[in-house]
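> run fold TetR/AcrR family transcriptional regulator
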Amino acid sequence: MRHKDENKNKSIYKAAIQLVNEQGLSATSMSKIAKRAGISASTIYVYFENKEDMLNKLYLMIKKDMSVEVFQHYDDSISVRSSFEYTLRKYLDFILNNKDEFLFIEQFSNSPLLHNLSKEEGTLMFEPIIRLLEEGKSQKIFKQVDTNLLYMAMVNLCMQYVKEHYGGRITFKQEDINIIVEMTWDAIKKDEI
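> ok
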């Protein structure tokens, strides 16, 4: 059995992200990834069973990195509003500073190659957001709707903004972060009577 080298593993992941973002999922082959990573085509199979296995592991690695970054120093004992703002700002910060990873996740999340188990595991990494939304609902701060709808409302404006920025259709402005946070809060908070 061949020994796995952590640097080769990172090179494979980096090459896969680049190729998927440049050429798309279907045009990215294991041999292209190996060539871009500077390893032999047979070596890549020491690390992964096949392309599907490699992409799912890469997806989970990025989701883990994202969740570690978003929830670093997270304190769920502070107010719902403060927790919401902290989490949303950290999420925006991650996707704005990790373009290649964000674009890969966006593309792979809509692929039939994404296993249900990987999707579930990736979702579990963001359980603190679900708990935050549930807490907001129990305190009657957030709309009394399905938590998944609140989650979508919370992250979709961020994702769309970042996609527009990366696509060159808008220019990122720091003050937009405050606007996004406020608009997102307004979208999910319970209406005042």
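Residues 47 and 158 are 34 Å apart (CA to CA).
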